[in-house]
Amino acid sequence: MASEKVQTITDANFDTTINGGKPVLVDFWAEWCGPCKRLAPTVDELATDYDGKVVVGKLNVDDNPNTAFKFSIRGIPTLLLFKGGQVVEQVVGLADKDSLKKVIDKHVA
Amino acid sequence: MRNVIIIGSGPAGLTAALYSARANLKPLVIEGLEAGGQLMLTTLVENFPGHRDGIMGPELMAEMRAQAEHFGAEIIRGHVTSVDLLARPYTVKTSEAEYQCRTLIVATGASARLLGLPSERALLGHGVSTCATCDGYFFRGKPIAVVGGGDSAMEEAVFLTRFASHVTVVHRRDTLRASKIMQDKALANEKISFEWNADVEEIRDTGKGEVTSMVLRNNRTNELKEIPVDGVFVAIGHTPNTKLFQGQIDMDPNGYVVTHAGTRTSMPGVFACGDVQDHVYRQAITAAGSGCMAAIDAEKYLEGLPQHLGEAQVTA
Lengths: 109, 316
What we know:
The complex is a heterodimer.
Chain A: E1 7-9, H1 14-18, E2 24-29, H2 34-49, E3 55-60, H3 65-70, E4 78-83, E5 86-92, H4 97-105
Parallel strand pairs in A: 1-3, 2-3
Antiparallel strand pairs in A: 2-4, 4-5
Chain B: E1 2-7, H1 11-22, E2 28-30, E3 44-45, E4 55-56, H2 57-70, E5 74-76, E6 80-84, E7 90-94, E8 98-106, E9 110-112, H3 118-122, E10 128-129, H4 132-135, E11 143-147, H5 151-160, E12 166-170, H6 180-188, E13 192-195, E14 198-204, E15 213-218, E16 224-228, E17 231-234, E18 238-240, E19 270-272, H7 284-303
Parallel strand pairs in B: 1-2, 1-8, 2-5, 8-19, 10-17, 11-12, 11-17, 12-13
Antiparallel strand pairs in B: 3-4, 6-7, 7-8, 9-18, 14-15, 15-16
Helix pairs in contact in B: 1-2, 1-7, 5-6
């Protein structure tokens, strides 16, 4: 179960979300991806930890292929961190919370 | 203070958990980043005894986990960041907590190895993958390559023909290492072709940020060849996850934990099971078997510990 702090990002709301002012962490995932499920609780925790500072959202690549295609996502889970609408970090595959926090903290004062 | 901490939750770790739970040792399993281990990334497992029609890898792991929990094993999410085996009791740290234990069972397994090319690293997640079941979906109707000649490579190649228009298996030798049954499956598949004696020189196109082709070097003739592919799946084997234990228990030159007399490591009270100490068999069933052995070895060791003494005085 995704935490309520985690937004659902779609092809339709993607642009407005990443240009919303705050940094945005996007988790590209799919139902059939085991490692994505493994990463999900960590993403939930990050949404709570960075509440108010970073927008955390999940994008289902099955339902929203255009955005995944636009960023040449060919493997999931992939996390992209956007700042000012631009990709500033990417993490491919599983990662633990501490290393993800280090990545995010580089861009969040 | 725990009697037993088990690091890892693949077939080895969960079988160790099952046996030590049934021995009333109340084991704590720290499942790790790749919880469930390599079987979580496979599809149908046809060689685990007791499942005549096969069982899906993730389902088998869910069963093992539920069985261990049923008998009282405590399994927690978490990733071990350091261990101290030089002082008793042993200390195991995760990013959230710190635990102490009388015995430690190392079941950290092995993780997929990459070729080590800069272009491969740059394109990881953009066409380069180590997980066919995760990423095959992105290559519907596209030509792709699988690098490797073992069972995993053949399984991935066959699996990927569901999506890909064509699968080229790139292997650096002229014969496959895979078992006969897996070789036959791959060789009989019309969508699979082979590039023999081929080393991967480069994966293109890092400029574009996606895979467009790969450059192969024939290691007999040195001839270069570029083949157009949209994806490259690397299945060239595994590296044991032993960084945590460096300098604390003996390892072989390839980083595998050295075990003796069953699952004993060079440190009394520390046992190792599964792929972290096995570069020969590497099967779910052998991992499970050695997990059972580790639990029994740990139990025996605990029985020999003088309970009334302080841990610091215990020498084994």
